[in-house]
Amino acid sequence: MAARRFALVSLLLWATSPAVAQVFEFSASAESVTFDPGTGASDSVEVDLVISDLAGLFTAFPVPVATTGFELDITHDPDLLTVDVVEFVGGFATDFLFIDMDATSPATGNVGVSIGAIYGVFGAPIVTFGLDEGPVVTVTYDPVDTALVDSDEEVVPLVWEELGPAGTLSVIGVPFAVYTPILEDGEVTLTPREFRRGDADSNGELTLLDLALINLFVIGTASLECMDAADADDNGFVEIDDGLYLADFLYAMGPQPPAPGTSTCGSDPTADGLGCAAGGGCP
User: Fold this and answer.
1) 252 contacts: CB under 8 Å, gap ≥ 6
2) How far apart are CA 283 and CA 145, in angstroms?
3) How far is the C-alpha of 178 from the C-alpha of 155, rounded, in Å?
4) For residues 262 and 210, is the Cβ–Cβ distance under 8 A?
5) Reduced to 3 states, what is the DSSP secondary structure of residue 215?
6) Closest among 32, 267, 35, 31 to 148, alpha carbons compared
7) Looking at the chain, which terminus has fewer C-beta neighbours within 10 angstroms, N or C?
8) pTM surpassing 0.90?
9) Is-cis flag, bond preceding 135, omega within 30?
10) How does pLDDT run across 67-80, given as a tens digit for each residue?
11) β strands within the chain, DSSP E
12) Are strands 24-28 and 182-184 parallel, antiparallel or unpaired?
């Protein structure tokens, strides 16, 4: 891998001139995904890595700059995210392409992904980029379940940083020059799945049907998508008392179910391990 990276960087740096202008931008998208606070389980999340030519911001008649290669290096927190898939989606041919899903910063020890490409040198066409084009690379991350059990919201920065032994930051090559781009970091926001207390059937309302579903679950003849919602008294268990608690609230002016309440979506303030795999009456 080190030899392949050295070959890429050598080709990118074949010109004699240093970075000549910051007319390119590398950006990572900001994405979000919800997780079940009881188990930490969540879906994967896909982040776009985009290359933009910013010439159009500085002139009324921009001429896109032809490029011959790039290297994209971006880090993440491995305690909260792992890399599942890295995919080149640029839609153009390359002479050389490498993807390192487990690259390490020689300066900080941070980990991330490194993607490099050469084109327009050995036969593949020269490529130009615009202002509003789609991603060149997508990175699919899997949140770490065990780190999210009974956790609050986590925001994981995705930071452009020098990775691997080649000793170069993210760069883009053009004939006779190498550009140092403007770098816009991304992030992945991990949010506990929200619910309405007592909304066992996840229809957004608190009715007699919720009491019935809780009772059916207790006797083993029904399943629940969101255990937190069915835990009406927030004691960490779903039991017959939850149905009685809801009946008291609905029909006997009993106490309001605990936070987040019956009319507001929110996460469980109590770390009880129940969680909410889906539903809960909230978007």
Assistant:
1) none
2) 21
3) 33
4) no
5) helix
6) 35
7) C
8) no
9) no
10) 888 999 999 999 99
11) 24-28, 30-35, 45-53, 69-76, 81-88, 96-104, 111-118, 137-143, 154-160, 171-174, 177-179, 182-184, 186-192
12) parallel
Give the phi and the psi of residue 272 in degrees, each rounded to 5. -120, -5
Tokens for 265, please give them: 């979506």
pLDDT tens digits for range 193-214 = 999 999 999 999 999 999 999 9
Angstrom distance (rounded) from CA 135 to CA 239: 49
Structure tokens at 95: 């002479």
CB 26 within 8 A of CB 92: no
Residues whose CB falls within 8 Å of the CB of residue 154, separated by 6 or more in sequence, listed in order: 80, 147, 148, 189, 190
User: Do 24 and 181 contact (CB within 8 A), yes or no?
Assistant: yes
Amino acid at 212: A
CA distance 16 to 169: 18
Beta-strand relationship, 30-35 and 186-192: parallel
Amino acid, res. 227: M
Paired tokens of 154: 């986590």
Tokens of 105: 């910063």
**Do residues 21 and 176 make contact, with C-beta atoms less than 8 angstroms apart?**
no
Taking every pair of C-alpha atoms in the chain, what is the biggest distance, in angstroms? 83
Query: Is the pLDDT confidence value at 1 over 80?
Result: no
Q: Are 154 and 57 in contact (CB under 8 A)?
A: no
What is the length of the chain?
283
For residue 99, give every residue at least 6 positions away whose Cβ sits within 8 Å of its Cβ, in sequence order, or none: 86, 88, 113, 114, 115
CB 190 within 8 A of CB 33: yes
Assign 3-state DSSP to the chain and report helix, strand, coil percentages, each to 5: 15, 30, 50
